[in-house]
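// run 5 | inverse folding | seed 20
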């Protein structure tokens, strides 16, 4: 006896959308691809497995066809990486300043996620906790890097994993497609690895022929003799979970794409149901029913009752119109006695209209195929096979039936068939996926780098080489920015510092004239247009300014201001200025047009630690918005002068000559540490020792250098004659305070 191995017509076994009628194609084939037929269960609801990420040892790896959204399985992780960020802010007024140190921790993780046991083409979008983490262009919403390994047989191991585990201790996971995340920032995900789902593009164009899927399943089951060439439908995406039996996978596909499977010469034949009848059975060709039936009965008809048939068929599927999330469509029959509802869930990518059409076809086939017949034919019909469609011309109207079983005996060919019509497969329903909120990775803002080789604005005693920097964020999403440094001439970059608050910056639209450094400058003003229209400037009282409010960097000069008035053209007019703050008076007379303005405060000004060996060298820097690529960021070169360690220039220099022409020089030192007025005390020295260099100049050339460990020195008449040939009525002099860390500070320039 031969029989149809699998068909979607009728409800005899497995419900209205498909039933395997027997399994008589041979024990080896049956066990390999179908797992036996003594008992079976058709499972529904597997779609829920597509939303939960796992990290269990021994977890089976699925095979992906077409394009699917899958969670994958974490196969390696380095654990959470903790980064400590410390920022010190100064508060309080003169004589009562207090340093407040805030310590924050951020977390990232590096890990690998297995996707498919079948080679893929690429990975598209990635979602983290349901939110878009990576868009189709590869743009990542948070800091970190993602690499895709497509599952080739000879793929190399990931260099980051190998660096952690040791060279030679990691394989390349041949024939396994997976992704690696390196330092994925976890701040937006409660400092944990989020539940990730991936748009996996397994085949070119995101589609694959049904015949290719069926062939792959057969080959994996060691079935070498089969013919699936008739299955020319395109499949958008399909997933075979690791432990799933091949029989169940093919059965799922047959429910949707309406094909059956028959045994043919110890192999399998896959054919679409929408085929023409192979024979017409005339009434005179029917053979008398077997013994026991009435002589007039040549056909035995069996018909299911309404109560045995479904009222509704529902189908859950993967909807590309919903970002590959689960969709659901159903078909219903009204005014029927049945209350049976049949639901199934398939890991299959379908449009909403496709799923609606499939549901209606399945419901229609269940009701139309409720009638089965048994009959006998003469031996001339011996070439009929299960799966063939025959037209029975014995009814008042000709009716097609699909043969389910045939058995050749001495009296003829015994046949069982189910009522069938190709018209039942020609439905075309329309459905809508429903509204889906559009998700996109926000365009990352560019980060503008401000490099300040300047003194500490708070007067702290800085003893190690650092420079200050700030960042201005452009339009778009700005989650922070990392500063990277290259010490090998722009070849490789390493992290140096990080900022998560952007500075208030702008452009000065006038040329700031020269002005006083020792008292308020009420005669000059600054016209500033801010880069970010959402930012603003505000005024402060004189006392607040003296206590450190409204500090700005303008063309190298550190300035403070009292009033900030917003003009009709959108610029700010800053007046009530204090000039040349923190030892920057040398820049007061050097301003030009369109200089950069940056408001300085402890929240936006960052200190980047350098090495003593970096002092005086040119370094390359890259400022990278979190989530962007270091390679794509522009390189910026700067000289590190360690101005934070330089003593301020001395002040109030004067000289007195005696009758012999000997010159006595004196001055007052300043301090880069503190600097507020204190009763009955001098300002802190700020160095381990007090020492000065005094240069005597002749037309810009140094003719003599004097040293002193007190703020005074004698330039004798004999030295003058030795240096110039005669006593000098006017001398050009430079006086430097010496730092034990960096050497000479800024000079006091005198003509005496």
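// decoded
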């Amino acid at each position: 006896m031969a029989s149809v191995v699998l068909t979607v017509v009728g409800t005899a076994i497995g419900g209205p959308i498909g039933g395997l009628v027997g399994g008589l194609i041979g024990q080896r084939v049956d066990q390999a691809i179908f797992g036996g037929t003594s008992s079976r269960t058709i499972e529904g609801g597997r779609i829920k497995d597509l939303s939960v990420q796992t990290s269990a040892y021994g977890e089976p790896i699925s095979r992906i066809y077409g394009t699917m959204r899958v969670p994958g399985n974490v196969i390696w992780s380095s654990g959470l990486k903790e980064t400590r960020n410390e920022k010190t802010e100064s508060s309080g007024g003169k004589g009562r300043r207090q340093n407040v140190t805030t310590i924050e921790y951020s977390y990232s993780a590096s890990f690998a996620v297995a996707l498919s046991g079948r080679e893929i083409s690429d990975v598209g979008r990635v979602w983290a906790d349901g939110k878009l983490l990576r868009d189709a262009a590869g743009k990542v919403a948070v800091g970190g890097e993602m690499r895709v390994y497509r599952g080739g047989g000879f793929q190399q191991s990931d260099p980051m994993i190998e660096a952690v585990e040791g060279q030679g201790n990691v394989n390349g996971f041949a024939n396994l497609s997976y992704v690696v995340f390196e330092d994925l920032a976890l701040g937006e995900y409660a400092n944990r690895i989020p539940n990730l789902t991936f748009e996996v593009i397994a085949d070119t164009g995101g589609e694959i022929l049904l015949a290719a899927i069926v062939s792959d399943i057969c080959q994996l089951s060691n079935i070498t003799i089969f013919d699936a060439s008739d299955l020319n439908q395109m499949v958008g995406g399909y997933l075979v979970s690791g432990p799933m039996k091949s029989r169940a996978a093919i059965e799922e596909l047959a429910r949707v794409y309406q094909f059956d499977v028959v045994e043919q010469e110890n192999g399998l034949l896959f054919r679409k149901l929408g085929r023409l009848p192979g024979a017409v059975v005339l009434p005179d060709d029917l053979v008398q029913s077997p013994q026991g039936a009435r002589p007039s009965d040549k056909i035995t008809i069996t018909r299911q009752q309404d109560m045995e048939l479904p009222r509704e068929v529902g189908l859950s599927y993967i909807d590309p119109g919903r970002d590959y999330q689960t969709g659901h469509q159903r078909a219903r029959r009204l005014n029927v006695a049945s209350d049976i509802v049949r639901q199934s869930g398939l890991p299959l990518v379908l449009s909403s209209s496709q799923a609606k059409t499939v549901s209606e076809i399945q419901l229609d086939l269940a009701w139309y195929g409720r009638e089965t017949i048994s009959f006998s034919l003469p031996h001339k019909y011996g070439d009929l096979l299960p799966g063939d469609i025959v037209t029975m011309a014995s009814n008042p109207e000709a009716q097609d039936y699909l043969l389910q079983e045939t058995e050749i005996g001495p009296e003829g060919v015994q046949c069982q068939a189910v009522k069938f019509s190709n018209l039942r497969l020609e439905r075309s329903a329309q459905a809508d996926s429903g509204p889906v909120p559009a998700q996109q990775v926000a365009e990352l803002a560019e980060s503008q780098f401000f490099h300040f080789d300047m003194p500490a604005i708070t007067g702290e005693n800085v003893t190690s080489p650092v420079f200050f920097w700030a960042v201005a964020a452009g339009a778009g999403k700005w989650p922070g920015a990392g500063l990277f440094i290259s010490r090998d001439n722009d070849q490789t970059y390493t992290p140096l510092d990080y900022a998560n608050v952007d500075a208030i910056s702008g452009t000065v639209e006038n040329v700031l004239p020269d002005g006083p450094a020792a008292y308020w400058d009420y005669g000059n003003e600054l016209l500033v247009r801010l880069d970010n229209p959402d930012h603003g400037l505000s005024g402060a009282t004189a006392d607040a300014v003296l206590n450190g409010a409204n500090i700005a960097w303008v063309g190298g000069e550190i300035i403070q201001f009292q009033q900030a008035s917003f003009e009709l053209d959108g610029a700010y007019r800053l007046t009530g200025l204090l000039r040349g703050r923190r030892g920057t008076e040398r820049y007061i007379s050097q301003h030009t047009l369109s200089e950069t303005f940056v408001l300085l405060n402890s929240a936006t000004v960052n200190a980047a630690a350098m090495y003593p060996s970096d002092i005086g060298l040119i370094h390359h820097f890259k400022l990278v918005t979190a989530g962007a690529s270091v390679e794509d960021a522009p390189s910026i070169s700067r000289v590190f002068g360690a101005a934070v360690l330089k003593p301020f220039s001395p002040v109030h220099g004067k000289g007195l000559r005696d009758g012999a022409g000997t010159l006595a020089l004196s001055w007052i030192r300043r301090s880069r540490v503190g600097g507020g007025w204190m009763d009955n005390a001098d300002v802190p020295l700020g160095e381990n020792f007090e020492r000065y260099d005094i240069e005597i100049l002749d037309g810009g050339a140094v003719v003599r250098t004097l040293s002193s460990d007190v703020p005074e020195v004698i330039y004798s008449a004999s030295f003058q004659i030795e240096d110039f040939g005669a006593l000098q009525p006017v001398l050009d002099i430079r006086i430097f305070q010496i730092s034990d860390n960096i050497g000479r500070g800024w000079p006091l320039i005198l003509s005496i």
